Amino acid sequence: MSQTASKNVEKDQTSSTDEFLFKEGEKVLCYHGPLIYFAKCMQARQDSSNVVEYYIHYSGWNKSWDEWVPISRVLKINDENLQKQKDLNKAQKSEAGKKNKKKKSSSVLNSPDTSQNTSISTPGNNTSLTNADISTTQLNADGKASSQNASNLSQDLGELTPKRKKSRVSESSSSQDDQAPAKEKITHSFAMSPRIKLLLAQDWFNVDVNKQLVKLPCTHSIDTILEKYLQEQLEKNKNMRSSEKDLIKGIADYFNTLLNPSLLYLSERLQYDEIFKEDPNASVTKIYGVVHLLRLLVIFPEKLAAYPLVDKQRVEHMITKIQPLVEFVELNIDKFLCDVKYETASTDSQSKPTS
């Protein structure tokens, strides 16, 4: 939260924090549009008119979505409200199904399992993610990237992917970065449906609250997902063969680089270490699946923007070219989720997310 927001909290708050229904740092449920999402109460305030508001961070979402909300939108996490969350999600699925019944996207994988209800099982508490129909509307008008653009993107990803052997930065280079002019703030991100946001919030709840981990390896691994995406692109334009392969390799390499430092909760680190203890040459893109791929896509723009030589236009260009992959994952999410299950984490694991 910005310093300005913090000052506003101190200025507006007129009663002790003990009097607020929701405490600072408390995990809650919060309405955003017609659905309820897992969230965290960051601050509370009460203005001169005795109106109480809470500063909410939606779990698994970018901080740009943080906002002040009235008390009427915030709920305690209990069985009754979790059921209300499921009912609203089910109702949205039903409504979306009626609207999209006459539509059939050619981008959806031809599989008899795609139309069946699937869920992410969470042992011990019966929590699950029900299906919601995903809009077939194009998320990006410029969905077809040229061979040259895709090639440029794969080259960009290669340049921006840090090499493991050169991960340590010298003090001299750090001081040079400190002297660099301030960059324009980049807030561009991928367009993602409420279903995907709910999935990521549920993932956070499973790992951080329920102390569970995604069972590995996943049948639909990241390599499998990217290969299927590549096949679909080749069917649309066979001339994109080499450039699309380079693009997919760039995304896979980026996942390899960011997985351990940026995409795992602390409770998942032990699981990660055990993988490499059994096989030092293990390929994480053959082990992890759609949940972790979505985590990458959420932070992808922010990570790209962090590089000193990347300006706003370049980030937005790269996001535009990768947006069709996001759309592909959304359209086929039920197929990719059909084998995703959560299991109880080791007692040695911690559940605080990485920064």
TrEMBL record:
It is found in: Nucleus. Residues 108-155 have a biased composition (Polar residues). It comes from the Eukaryota. Keywords: Chromatin regulator, Nucleus, Transcription, Transcription regulation. Signal peptide: none annotated. Residues 87-187 are annotated as: Disordered. PROSITE patterns: MRG. The keyword Ribosomal protein does not apply. This is Chromo domain-containing protein. It comes from Clastoptera arizonana. The lineage of its organism: Eukaryota, Metazoa, Ecdysozoa, Arthropoda, Hexapoda.
